[in-house]
Each structure stands twice: as structure tokens, then as C-alpha cells.
Amino acid sequence: MPTLLMCFDAPMQSWGTRSRFASRDTATEPTKSGVIGILAAALGIPQDADEEIRTLAGLRMGVRIDREGILESDFHTVQNVPNTEGKNHRTAVTQRFYLANALFLVALESDDTPLLHQLLNALHRPHWPLHFGRKAFPPARPLPTHGLPDEDQPVTAHPLEHALRTHPWLENHPHSTNRQHKRDTNTSPTWLRTVVDADPFALDVELRHDFPLSFNPQQRSYASRAVQISHVALTPEMINSHTA
Description:
Elements: E1 3-13, E2 23-24, H1 32-43, H2 50-57, E3 60-67, E4 70-81, E5 90-109, H3 113-124, E6 155-156, H4 160-166, H5 174-181, E7 191-197, E8 206-214, E9 221-233, H6 236-243
Parallel strand pairs: 2-5
Antiparallel strand pairs: 1-5, 1-6, 3-5, 3-7, 4-5, 7-9, 8-9
Helix pairs in contact: 1-2
């Protein structure tokens, strides 16, 4: 089954899941609602187009964490905040969390190959600006990333799990790539964490409440999805393919 491959790289990213009132959280990897929101923006799909949003959400998603981010927070001042009666407006300080220096390989699998190519074209020429959770967090690189070693296209013919196991490492910091090259081959391998959509009746799955049903600002709604947390080995081939 074909898979669309994307690189999510930026100095700062925010993937909220349980943001409430004065505290805005972030997940440690891109959420499904966040990824679908980016695709919808690229295609020019309005927030109230629920059917089109749910079609995109039906794509099977997997994420490989090529560089774990550092959890940071900042503070925002919000003015004219009313009380519960809608009166006595005041100024409030909110705490907002984000990931610094994170890097992800995001894969979307579907048997609808034309849809994947439509998404690819939209990512090359997005209808609206793309950002990672906040408008101040734009991508540092183009989202579509080259395919597997035997291919050179962002849409690969290989299934999602194969792509996560074999796609070249996305790391581009020289000190990190050099350190991996110098590792003794007899030491234990480095492992990259993966989060993949899974059958909800399978063993060892977790639920994430980030499956978008509607982005309508008046009635945003989400459902739960099952994911499986695993790891893939960072092999010399993945490193060499990246640096070749």
C-alpha cells in the first residue's frame, strides 16, 4: 500500500491535546488532528468542511521520532478576559508548552494513490501558510521528503511500517551524524521511537483523543484512536543513505 512521506522539522513545534484555559500543553510528537489540519490548509479545505476533514483523517498515520524534542514553555498575556458572567474584563497570563529542536518522519498510508499525489502537490504549493501548531512555528524544510533508498519520491510504493524501518535518517546536525558514524559497531544500537495507528482491539495499544471529526470553531470535536508505541533500529544504512 503506498505511503506519503513528510519531514516535520522546525525550531519550535506545538501539538496540543488537552489545552484548557490558562495552560496549553503539547504532545511529544505530531498529533493526528495537527497533521490533518496541515493537510487541510495545504488543500484549502475550510474549517467547517467536516466530510472532507474526516476523509483525510481516515488515512493511516505513523510517526518516527528522529530527534526527540525538548519540552519548553513560554507565557502569553491575554487581555479583556471576561469572568463567568461575561463582566469584569481582566488581563490573564497563560502558560504555553512547545517542543524545541524536534524532528519527525510522518508517514500517511492509503490505497488511494491519487489522493496521496494530490496531497503531495498541495504540500508543494499550499493554499494557506503551513505551521506546526502555532502560526509563529513555520516548517524549517519542505514537508515532502525523498523516498526510500531504492526510490526517490515522497510517495513510496512500500507500506507504512517498511518506510519507518528503512527511510534514511532525517537528522541534519553535523555533530549528531558524526557521533553516530563513530559509534562502535559492537555496542547496542540506537533506537528511534515510533507511534503508529493500530487496530483498537490489538494488544499493547494506547488511546489518543486526537482523531478530528470537525474543525468548526463553534463545535470542534474529536474521537479517540488506537496507536502502538514501538521502536526501530537506527542502522548504518539509514545513516549512510542520509549522508551519501
